[in-house]
Structure formats: C-alpha cells, structure tokens
Design goal:
mainly alpha
Length: 157
Amino acid sequence: MAKEQDHPDISPMVHPPIVALMFIVIAYFLARFAPIPFGAPPLLRYIGLGMTFIGFLLGIGAFIEFRKARTTLNPHGSVKQLVTAGIYRFTRNPIYLGFLLMVIGLPLNSGLYWGFLMAPLYMITMTRLVIEREEAYLEKKFKGQYTSYKSSVRRWL
C-alpha cells in the first residue's frame, strides 16, 4: 500500500509569489499597451503605496505566526500545526490577501488603475489553483478543528 501524501495537491509549477508578480506585470503591460486615459491623482497613488505596505505587513505577520507554530510556510509542504492566532484570527489567507493588496497597490502607486481590474482575476486564480487545495488538505488533516476555524474566519477578509 502506498503512503498517503501529506501536503496539499498544489502543482509544483504554482508558486503564489510568482502568481502575484505575474498579475502585477500584466497590469503594467496592459497600462503600456491599453492605457486607461486618465491617471490616478496623487492621493490615490499614496493609497496604493499604503496598500502595498499593508500587504507586506500581512506577510510578515503570517511569517511570525508560522515561526511560532514551527510549521512550514511552503504551500507545497507538510503542515505540522494549524495556525489560527495573530493575523489568522481575521483572515485564513493573510499572505494571499497581502499579495492582493500589492497587485492593486503597486500599479496604483504608479498612477495605474489596471491593478483594480486584475484583482478579481488574481483572486479567482489563487482560489482555484492554491486556496481550495490547501483547504481540502487542512480539512482532511485537521478535520473538525479546521472546519470550526473555517466557519468562523473568512477566506479573504
């Protein structure tokens, strides 16, 4: 009998930071070849910078909680413990939420609205390629503990 895998069934070709970076690059590419005829005013540019900074802080907060729990941050790895403390009390996916803020914030900081248009596509892509698979793995591994957590904390925010 083959040993059951102890990691999410996420394609080894899918790396969440690379997925986020691809959407940011696409936003800049679209701005170059299909520009929106009006740019973001200075206030929105600062908001974009703030969103990017908050996105980075969400990742740092998640990293800290994973280190405390002594479990892996690697979405392809085996999780030793369910993390529900810190930033995980507010969102089940703070790293992916942070990336989402960067997908919107970096282009906006450059005066581009394309990040807003890329955001729903990024969310759908991450949900289908990563989050749903992580959730299935965590539900199988941690059963009722994860189901209870999942029912009390939202996926994105």
